TrEMBL record:
<keyword id="KW-0812">Transmembrane</keyword>
<feature type="transmembrane region" description="Helical">
    <location>
        <begin position="201"/>
        <end position="223"/>
    </location>
</feature>
<dbReference type="GO" id="GO:0016020">
    <property type="term" value="C:membrane"/>
</dbReference>
<keyword id="KW-1133">Transmembrane helix</keyword>
<feature type="transmembrane region" description="Helical">
    <location>
        <begin position="66"/>
        <end position="87"/>
    </location>
</feature>
<protein>
    <recommendedName>
        <fullName>Permease</fullName>
    </recommendedName>
</protein>
<feature type="transmembrane region" description="Helical">
    <location>
        <begin position="230"/>
        <end position="261"/>
    </location>
</feature>
<feature type="transmembrane region" description="Helical">
    <location>
        <begin position="298"/>
        <end position="328"/>
    </location>
</feature>
<feature type="transmembrane region" description="Helical">
    <location>
        <begin position="134"/>
        <end position="161"/>
    </location>
</feature>
<dbReference type="Pfam" id="PF01594">
    <property type="entry name" value="AI-2E_transport"/>
</dbReference>
<dbReference type="GO" id="GO:0055085">
    <property type="term" value="P:transmembrane transport"/>
</dbReference>
<dbReference type="InterPro" id="IPR002549">
    <property type="entry name" value="AI-2E-like"/>
</dbReference>
<feature type="transmembrane region" description="Helical">
    <location>
        <begin position="267"/>
        <end position="286"/>
    </location>
</feature>
<feature type="transmembrane region" description="Helical">
    <location>
        <begin position="20"/>
        <end position="46"/>
    </location>
</feature>
<comment type="similarity">
    <text>Belongs to the autoinducer-2 exporter (AI-2E) (TC 2.A.86) family.</text>
</comment>
<keyword id="KW-0472">Membrane</keyword>
């Protein structure tokens, strides 16, 4: 019997999976306007599923639905408390921090430099830059509303997924039994499993590193007597989600605030603190949370961050390295898996059921 071109395509595993991966990338590109919701849903779902497995590992009798319900009740309570008490304090501290930065630029040391710059820069240019800054602020406010909506939708979607986790897994695996395109769902399952074991692990590790960096930084800032510790802590946490470069990014505003409070002495203290935290992250936190198999040379990390920011904007700084790690795993360059992909076991079960 002559083998058709379509059968040759299905039998060619590498070509078939390459085509499926390109199709997935194309679909995600076409739906890029929903990327905030997609990524946040994945992150929330991954964290909750990981929490369920961790709890049931020690307390196997606790049902997953109870864990999910309690987790989301606690999360809703925390969001309410944050909106009621923390956000007003945060807004107040951000306002004070902004005033401190403005005072820094209006100080005698910087005032002379700004006056010299003003001689060579026309008022028209300054006016245009001011308009661009206002436009950027307006776009940021609109973006905040969009992110807030995406955050809410991601919470809802992740809740419905995790509350019926066993049913969802059972129903999803039923697609592998399809006689028409079971091979397609097997390939999608393959990439989904790889994505979870690379993207999820790296992102979770970076999240834990960011929490540790933020906690230690806030303790050091409180000891130094720095103002607006909560606002600075939030900024450090967001910056710490960016691998390697986050430390450098957070150094600039921290130094400005330190200079406006205590002069060059506090700036030196901030530099020493950042150096110690960066050493701690490099030699202790990264090996602890980020498996040695997922570490990248600093040069590759910065190149990935630059390309990620160019193609994906702010999200690219956060998810650029995990996505790059995922492609390294797909290409077989570097794997983060601790166990083999269970697709073969599933395929055997599907074949037996078909017979």
């Amino acid at each position: 019997m002559e083998v058709t071109l379509w059968q040759k395509f299905k039998n060619n595993l590498h070509l078939r999976r390459s085509a499926v991966l390109l199709a997935i990338i194309l679909i995600l590109y076409l739906g890029r306007s929903m990327m905030n919701t997609i990524l946040l849903t994945f992150i929330f779902t991954y964290l909750i599923v990981h929490l369920i497995k961790s709890v049931q590992k020690h307390f196997s009798k606790i049902p997953s639905k109870l864990i999910v319900a309690v987790t989301y009740l606690v999360l809703i309570a925390l969001i309410y408390l944050a909106a009621r008490y923390y956000v007003p304090v945060l807004v107040k501290q951000i306002t004070k921090m902004t005033k401190s930065v403005i005072a820094f630029y209006q100080s005698d040391d910087v005032g002379w430099l700004m006056s010299q710059v003003h001689k060579y820069v026309s008022d028209k240019t300054i006016s245009a830059q001011a308009k661009n800054s206002l436009a950027a602020i307006t776009a940021a406010l609109k973006g905040f509303g969009s992110v807030a909506m995406s955050f809410f939708m991601a919470l809802v979607l992740s809740f419905f997924y995790t509350i019926e986790l066993d049913d969802m897994n059972r129903f999803t695996r039923s697609f592998l039994k399809s006689d028409l395109c079971g091979w397609l769902f097997e390939d999608i399952y393959y990439f989904g499993y790889k994505f979870t074991n690379t993207f999820g692990v790296v992102l979770q590790a970076q999240f834990l590193i960011a929490l540790c960096n933020t906690g230690l930084t806030m303790i050091c800032l409180a000891i130094m007597g720095m103002p607006q510790v909560f606002a600075l802590g939030l900024m450090v946490f967001i910056c710490s989600l960016v691998p390697v470069a986050g430390v450098i990014i957070s150094l600039i505003p921290l130094s400005i605030v330190a200079y406006s409070v205590g002069g060059i002495t506090d700036v030196i203290y901030i530099l020493i603190m950042i150096l110690v935290l960066h050493t701690l992250e490099t030699y202790i936190l990264n090996p602890k949370f980020m498996s040695s198999k997922t570490e990248l040379p600093i040069f590759y990390t910065f190149v990935v961050l630059l390309l990620g920011e160019h193609f994906f904007g702010t999200w690219g700084l956060i998810v650029g390295v995990p996505i790059f790690t995922f492609f390294l795993d797909i290409l077989g360059v570097k794997s983060t898996e601790k166990k083999q992909l269970p697709i073969k076991k599933l395929q055997k079960k599907v074949v037996l059921k078909r017979k």
